[in-house]
Amino acid sequence: KNHVPLGGWGLRCNPGCEKTIKPIRPVNEAAPVAAVDSSSIRIAETEDGSLYAVKSGTAFAINGQAIMHFKIGPILVYLNKETIKTSELDHRLAKLVLFDGESARRLIRLRVERAIQIKLSNHFMKSIIVVDGALKSSPFENKNQSITTVAENCSVRKNVLLGISKSTSFKLLDKVSAPLTNINEAAYMDIEMIIQSLSRSTIGNNLLVKLGNSNSPILRADIVCPEGDIDNSIGKLLTNDSMAGGYPETLRLAHHVSTFSNTEIACLRGHVLSNYDVTELPSEDIRKTLLGSIPA
Fold it and tell me: Strand, coil or helix: what is 36?
């Protein structure tokens, strides 16, 4: 997916970059870890709208052991001109959601995640809340359930809010991360100046982190610490969550719990046909009709 120079990045890296790397030491202090992820799919289209389904997964761990996980959903969401009026979106963004399926799925997924994050940030204390993706405000957010509100709740109740991105659109970070690649222990480097120059909508401290040894991936992380102590906050994460493969196990579990299986999708469509007065119309695969297929 990514083109990397022969020999990897960093052949011309500034030698001073190594000075910005800080090792992460485990902090032996019990702190619950709660991770949230979600997914959404389009189930069907109607004459005036589309029917979507959303499902979220939440996983918990403490002292390096997973303790429980929950599946929330699937929840059916119907979007048309009438229902979108309650979304508080501006006119142009509302039209985009109605005509672009990817934007609609993003809206639904984001709002469900924010609602769960608000609950966690209000009910937990001195915990670590991990979310998938950057801590970034979005035009799809509800004003009363924004990432800023989640961060404020975390600060009041002394929770750590951590957003971890598996990939980034800022390719400059691939080059900057070269010194971390050569480190054989958990470590991080501050990239706040780079992120703030490229995006004004992120909150917290912006980092590149390596949460394992040797071949562990380099991940972008945004973190809001109750007292600004990054070393202590990430150190507690290493102690209380499992880092198999250099990625939080709670976040991996939340992802798998929230993923739709083919059986679930078939059941949802059957539920709609059985319980709502709708008729399924045959659809045509235009690509297969025009291009045909080559027999195996």
Answer: strand
210 by DSSP, 3-state: which?
strand
The answer to whether residues 164 and 248 touch, using CB atoms and an 8 Å cutoff, is yes
Interval 99-135: pLDDT, tens: 888 999 999 999 999 999 999 999 999 999 999 988 8
Range with top average pLDDT, 48-52, 171-175, 255-259? 255-259
Q: What is the pTM of this model?
A: 0.83
| The pair of three-digit structure tokens given for residue 122, joined into one six-digit string | 């209000």
Q: Which residues pair with 129 in a beta bridge?
A: 34, 161
Look at the block and give the residue holding tokens 């690509």. 287
Sequential DSSP letters for 161-209: EEEEES--S-THHHHHTHHHHT-SS-EEEE-HHHHHHH-SSB-SEEEEE
- Does residue 162 contact residue 130 with C-beta atoms inside 8 Å? yes
Q: What is the largest CA-CA distance in the chain?
A: 68
Range 133-168 burial, b when 16+ CB lie within 10 A, else e = bbbbeeebbeeebbbebbbebbbebebbbbbbbeeb
